Structure to design on (70 residues):
């Protein structure tokens, strides 16, 4: 898995009725775009998003965002 800052992660639900989770990658700590990633989760209940170190598993997909797009 390879990603860049600004790309998005989609984590599939693990059980029926479990929602997908989405996060924005704010830092890549592995070599050549590999994990781990520092992410901000979309469903973070805090007013100020917090950084979370994340090692994606096989249930994660990277959504590559072209440079210059929000």
């Amino acid at each position: 898995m390879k990603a860049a800052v600004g790309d998005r992660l989609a984590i599939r639900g693990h059980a029926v009725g479990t929602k997908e989770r989405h996060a924005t990658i704010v830092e890549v700590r592995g070599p050549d775009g590999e994990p781990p990633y520092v992410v901000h989760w979309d469903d973070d209940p805090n007013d100020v998003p917090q950084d979370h170190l994340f090692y994606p598993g096989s249930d994660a997909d990277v959504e590559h965002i072209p440079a210059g797009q929000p």
